[in-house]
Amino acid sequence: MHERVRSGDRTAFAEIFDEHARVVYAHAIRTTGDWALAEDVMSLTFLEAWRLRDKLREEVRSVRAWLLGIATNVMRNIARAARRHRDAMSRLPPPEALPDFSDAIVHQMADAERLAAAARALKRLKRTEREVFTLVVWSDLGYAAAAEALGIPVGTVRSRLSRAREKLRRLVEEELAPNARGVEPRTYSGHISQREGTSVRPSHRRSAR
Known about the structure:
Protein name: RNA polymerase sigma factor
InterPro entries: RNA_pol_sigma-70-like, RNA_pol_sigma-70_dom, RNA_pol_sigma70_r2, RNA_pol_sigma70_r4_t2, RNA_pol_sigma_r2, RNA_pol_sigma_r3/r4-like, WH-like_DNA-bd_sf
Helix content: 55-70%
Structural class: mainly alpha
Largest sheet: 2 strands, antiparallel
Family: Belongs to the sigma-70 factor family. ECF subfamily.
Keywords: Sigma factor, Transcription, Transcription regulation
Pfam families: Sigma70_r2, Sigma70_r4_2
Strand content: under 5%
């Protein structure tokens, strides 16, 4: 399979996409907390994988780890671009005041709100801890595979994951506290499975205010 992909066999690459696209999408959505951005990350990951297909040699033991490593780099680049954009926007003069359209927003997707709360807690971790946590815990990579994806020693994966778990427990409690943000708690109808085989598409049910 590796040799076929390296030689430019699109059918072989399509097989890799079919097998691993859901895992890459789940990793992206759990990391970013944004459904649309996760789709962009997935597309960019496979475009980059096709561009780098010559690197898919026999020493790449896990295609999934290889793809998740690419996805992690894609998200790093997106985050850097977002920071540059925010910095550029902060230097612009303030915009004119606009009418308040908040009353027109009458529904929110419950799943999206729950995911956003989890993503806020995750983003409060250091980037290195966040990457290890999402790969090992949410994407079910073993320590060795995560080390391969990130290009770091296995021992570093273990230590970063230990710190990430400890911090995340505290941060999630803060984010999920009913009155932490001055709002009433909501009832949620869905969750994101930590199993790679579970669907990660958003529910279309909406919660009534």
